[in-house]
Amino acid sequence: MKKTAAALAALLALTACAFEQAPNEAAPPSSSPPSDIVLDTAAEGACGKLDEAIELRNSGDSWDEIDAATAEIEAKTLALESSVEELKGIVLDSPEGEDIDESTARMRDWCVENAGSMEVSSAGASEEAVSHDGAQELISELGEADISCTGYEPVEGAVGAETRGSCYLESGEEVVVSTYASADDVDVQMETHRALGGEVHLLTGPDWTLNSADGGFLEAAQEVLGGTLVME
């Protein structure tokens, strides 16, 4: 049997649709952007299946069979972001005639180098969080738990947010606190951060976000406010 192509195609298909769904759970609409947890799960799931793919390919196969599956793989992976695209590229963009051992070795190297590049706290699970009426209320709640963020300054006319303000930790690190009209607006804010490039350090709730480069502060804030910690 031509097992190598099937194994690598399955690996890429897993990357594109590893939503870890429960039985009979409908897949998310293809038009919906993948969440951080989905992307993280997809990359980890693909890497987790790498050894299985290598074992299956030992029966021998050619890159021609892999090329035949390219269209289907491409359609399933286009919606995903850079970490998944990089892994897909290692297979689909391999030089013609490259030894398959070299390709799988490069895939393994990618998995090792990118392990943990998209960290989601508590193995991707979010702590229970509640809505808040304003940015200053969030900061006040942290203060009541002895997490100090002082010098609050409101931001008037913040684009996309209902309220936004900044406060400062003892280290001088700025914390930007925002509240939104809906969870959809929080998702838009997440995508905006990614589009700007650089690192993304956020604690997100149902209608609010805390943005700070201080990961320790965000972890402490999560214990008080709940929410999902995203470190990319």
UniProtKB/TrEMBL annotation:
Residues 1-18 form the signal peptide. Keywords: Signal. PROSITE patterns: PROKAR_LIPOPROTEIN. It comes from the Bacteria. This is Uncharacterized protein. The lineage of its organism: Bacteria, Bacillati, Actinomycetota, Actinomycetes, Streptosporangiales.
